[in-house]
Amino acid sequence: MKKLAKTITALSGSAILLGACGNAEQAEEESFELNWSTTPSYSTQNPTESQANYIADKVSEFEEDYPQVELNTDLQSTDIDESMTRLLEQANTDRAPDVAAIDGYFFPRFMDYLQPLDDLFDEYEIDIDDYLPFVQDVLTGDDGQIYGLYMNTDTRVLFYDTDVVEEPPTTWDEAIATSLEIQEEGYNGLIFPGGRGEGTAVTTLWPLFWAQEGELVDEDGNPTFGEGDNYDKMLNVLQAVNEAVESGATPQRVSSYGGENDLNEEIAGGDTAMFLGGNWQVSFLRETLGDDFDSWAVAPLPQLEEGQFATSAGGWAWGIFAEEEEKQEAAFDLINRLFVGEEGMTEWTNVHGGLPSRTSIYEAEDLEAGEFSDTFREYLEDANVRPASQHYNEISNQMQIAVSEVISGGKSPEEALDDAWAVVNEGE
Amino acid sequence: MNTSNKRSALSLTLTKGIGNSPIPWLIPLSLILLFVFLFPVFEIIRYSFTDASFLETDYSYTISSFVRLFTLPGFYQMLIVTLIFVTASVFFQMFFGFLIALLIDKGQKLNLKGTVMVRTAVLTAWAIPGVVIGIIWRIMYTETPSGILNYLISFVGVDIVPFLSDPYMALFAVTLANIWRGTAFSMILLYAGIQTLPKDVMEAAKIDGASAIQRLLKVMLPMLAPIILINLIIISIDTFNTFDMVMALTGGGPGQSTEVIALSIYNSIFREFNLGHGAATAVVLLTINVGMTIVYLRVLGKRGAA
Amino acid sequence: MLNKKQLLFTKIFIYLCYGTVLVFFLFPMLWVISLSLKTQQELFATPPAIIPTSFAYENYLHVLENSNVLLYLRNSFIIVLFTVIFALITAIPAAYAISRFRFKGKSALLVTILMTQMISAVVISIPLYRLFAEWGLINNYVVLIIVYVAVVLPFSTWFLKGYFDTIPYELDEAAIVDGCTRFQILTRILIPTCLPGIVSVTILIAVQSWSQFVIPFILLDNESFYPVSVGVMNLQSTQQTISTHLLAAGSVISVLPVIILFVILQRFIVGALTSGAVKG
């Protein structure tokens, strides 16, 4: 009996489906809206034509396969902090879109509002263990369920021109020495982001701090970077940066560079031989330096002590807020075909560059891997991510202020750190 | 027969019809102002007495935001930065605005060619949105040899000037860009003032043998005093409230050396999610705004009495 | 003879000053135009070339095709247009009432209006953001324009009130004798007579709304609704793909329409502003 009932239901279901195909009116009745909140670069507004076309093609494929879905695109502002703040506010006030692009380091803070995706992962045959280790941590909630789809990732490295710098410096002191040497040959010294911006935190500050096993926050997310051992470790970081500037190895102007891309202009000038930056800058370097880029190589970020290693990983994930199953399914399919599925991630990497967050994609046949991508992948195995504390943004902002004050000569490392700690800590 | 008598007589003839009370005429204005100003001001004061985070709906009432604001490093520096930015911007905007207004006035009297062009050139700066001005000046201040200002300065034998990476230079750089932006407004206002000066007084002073400088200081400036004061207050308030240009130019850095009060409010709330703290800073700005209004009213009152 | 010599010196002196003023005010714009016509290679040449040799106008095509500058411009025009219309509809009757009626609390009302003029837009935008977010009105042009109107209302009302005050009351009287209602007095007599003042205030509202930053920046969070004053920010932060020459081209496109408008209308604008400044 039960079986019969099931068959009947299934039959009537398919009848409805058949009917829907032949009957536009009926399809409209069952149609629903899907609000897709994305950044301009992950939308058809992407300024690079090939990327925009890729997204447009995939989206129209999706729309053909899901005629009942009316896809609404909400474009986020390109200011990440701001757009994430707003998204959190929306989630908080029950106005969240159905599916949204979320910066990886904000992701855990959205988990309370997101839907678990384990079933859909199974259905689409994505294995969570295929993701890089740090990505698994980001996506998995305290309850062990999976809450998001990670797309590409990125990491920070030392870029250097082998024609000028034969051996990449592994320690900060070596970096200073090398920088002073190459300046005598007429090159610019070591540059890195040192101004107010998230690039300064993830490229310059945190790797030096993490490599000493410093902790920005404790398990409950409360700030700890300014007390106990962590204080000394953070002070070491600021002192190292200070030394680089005082010794003349690094120009003071880095205090106006808040992001990795702020270095581009100077690099394009052609006199730079060594800088700390993000993997995505490879495509810019190739485009601007042309054949001169052939002599460039990448190495791990120089650290305070020999043998230390740390780098930051970033990237974006997609979270699904919608509670309706049909919306979840459609949203998952959309993101999967665009950025996450085997085909999607491979093709997206080919047009966009960046680094796949799924290890299997590195082996994918169709992947046209960017330069150095195997090296980047190796670093990513041990990469750190920023803590998902609600205090993180304040910590980051205050430490950006601190380091740029040190570089510009406004404060000593001690003063700058004490002030940053005072502001963050009294904010409790 | 004075006007008020006339009016009361007339108002008798106008007692019928709905148009005869001022209230309906004022309703749209009042509603909009109540909704857009009164409610938010009340809210921001309320938030300033809470520990609210921008991201959470729960909060409790406390005065810790103010305590924190007044005791933490950075607050007084921010006030000083704002004060320097405002004072220098306002002074030089008016100074250059007045000079250019005088030049244009003189040029017009002499029928010089190019007067209109100068006037237009200055005016266009006024029509450019602040963010674009910030972007333009950031490009000009580039601290490498390909930066145009640094290139030009190198002719006088000066090495690279750290326009944006030295705390003091950055404040100077931001202020200079703001002077560029705001001079047009002062120029137009003062130019208008100069046009209204009675010609006979100026002529009389000339015949009396007063030198150009004397005429300027003893005759022109006193007569222009009211409009100068109004100009002063309008642009002071505008400068206190602005941050778009600074945001695009330096983002407040290096450190907090160019973080003016309005930018600080924005950063507290949208970067650090500290609604209570940001609201407390906003209340400080509001107090400055109200203080300026009182000064303005005093000035206006005196002007009316004179 | 001496007088002529003096005059010549004065002229030369003024021209020198004009030159300095022109350089100071035009140079930044000209430099950006120059950058916008350079190729990436030329951009970083040292010493920098003042006049671009490659005349890379394709930068403009690139920006037009790959960014939303035109959309931002369109949004700005829509916002400014409606702000002007609604601000005038609200301010004219209010200014009329304040100018022509005698009522209790009039000076208090004037002071209150003035007070609102002084309040920073940052202060009001944040509570409004929270409120609009709760009501689902973020990215809604109607409420956005109401806020824009509120910001320009105080000075518009004061300004128009000042202008109406200069029109002799005898004119109203004559109209009343002819049997006009108040509304007719306003529309048939005061508005036509005060047209220059209304034009001045329109220009002031338009310029202020055009460069308004804080309000759209906080009350809009969808990029496709941004006006130019906020949208160009996106050009700056997507530098990953857009570098200085393109940023320069984007900046030029975003200010060009208004600069052209200013140059064409400049005589008119100055006239309107000077008459306004004196009356207000």
UniProtKB/TrEMBL annotation, chain A:
Record keywords, A-Z: Signal, Transport
GO biological process, one term: maltodextrin transmembrane transport
Alphabetized Pfam families for the sequence: SBP_bac_8
InterPro entries: SBP
Alphabetical list of SUPFAM superfamilies matching this protein: Periplasmic binding protein-like II (SSF53850)
GO cellular component: ATP-binding cassette (ABC) transporter complex, substrate-binding subunit-containing
Annotated family: Belongs to the bacterial solute-binding protein 1 family.
Protein name: Carbohydrate ABC transporter substrate-binding protein, CUT1 family
Source lineage: Bacteria, Bacillati, Bacillota, Bacilli, Bacillales
UniProtKB/TrEMBL annotation, chain B:
One annotated Gene Ontology cellular component of this protein: plasma membrane
Compartmental location: Cell membrane
Record's keyword terms, sorted: Cell membrane, Membrane, Transmembrane, Transmembrane helix, Transport
Biological process, per Gene Ontology: transmembrane transport
A Pfam family assignment: BPD_transp_1
Taxonomy, superkingdom: Bacteria
Residues spanning the signal sequence: none
Transmembrane segments: 25-45, 78-104, 116-136, 171-194, 215-237, 275-297
Protein family membership: Belongs to the binding-protein-dependent transport system permease family.
Listed name of the protein: Carbohydrate ABC transporter membrane protein 1, CUT1 family
From TrEMBL, chain C:
GO BP, sorted A to Z: transmembrane transport
Coiled-coil regions listed in the entry: none
Keywords in alphabetical order: Cell membrane, Membrane, Sugar transport, Transmembrane, Transmembrane helix, Transport
Family the entry assigns: Belongs to the binding-protein-dependent transport system permease family. MalFG subfamily.
Bilayer topology annotation: Multi-pass membrane protein
Pfam families in the cross-refs: BPD_transp_1
Regions that span the bilayer: 12-33, 77-96, 108-129, 141-160, 189-210, 242-265
Keyword presence, Acetylation: no
Broad class of the protein's primary localization: membrane
Lineage start: Bacteria, Bacillati, Bacillota, Bacilli, Bacillales
Domain of life: Bacteria
ABC transmembrane type-1 domain sequence ranges: 73-265
Subcellular location: Cell membrane
GO cellular component, one term: plasma membrane
Protein name: Carbohydrate ABC transporter membrane protein 2, CUT1 family
